[in-house]
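lol forgot to send this yesterday, sorry. struct tokens for the thing we talked abt
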């Protein structure tokens, strides 16, 4: 299989992993729909796709964590926003754990994929 097509499968799995992780995070709202769509896409990719690229799903699990880190960028603690109509305060978590966990998952997915691709290229 060509190298560019392997990266395409990896990116497809990255999207599936992101969809599944976002479905877990948003379980009380649209999460069930995202889990169904992600699960159906995973089944399709397992049947049609390059199986070594499935580690892209691991990298995809880290993408919503980056968004959670961004949403909590003012934390930890009580963060207030002032506007013309008043002020709103929210309690935010520390963003660093979300950022570190997301970076570890994304990096691990890419590293494992590159190692597997290098091993297959060396034997092929």
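and heres what i got for the seq, position by position
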């Amino acid at each position: 299989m060509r190298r560019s097509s392997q990266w395409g499968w990896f990116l497809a799995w990255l999207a599936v992993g992101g969809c599944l992780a976002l479905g877990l995070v948003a379980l009380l709202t649209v999460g069930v729909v995202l889990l169904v769509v992600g699960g159906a896409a995973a089944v399709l990719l397992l049947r049609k796709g390059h199986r070594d690229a499935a580690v892209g799903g691991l990298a995809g699990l880290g993408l919503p964590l980056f968004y959670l880190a961004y949403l909590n960028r003012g934390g930890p603690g009580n963060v207030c926003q002032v506007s013309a109509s008043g002020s709103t305060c929210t309690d935010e978590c520390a963003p660093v754990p979300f950022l570190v966990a997301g970076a570890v998952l994304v990096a691990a997915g890419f590293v494992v994929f590159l190692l597997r691709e290098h091993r297959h290229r060396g034997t092929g």
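The beta strands are 77-83, 86-92. anyway ping me if u want another try
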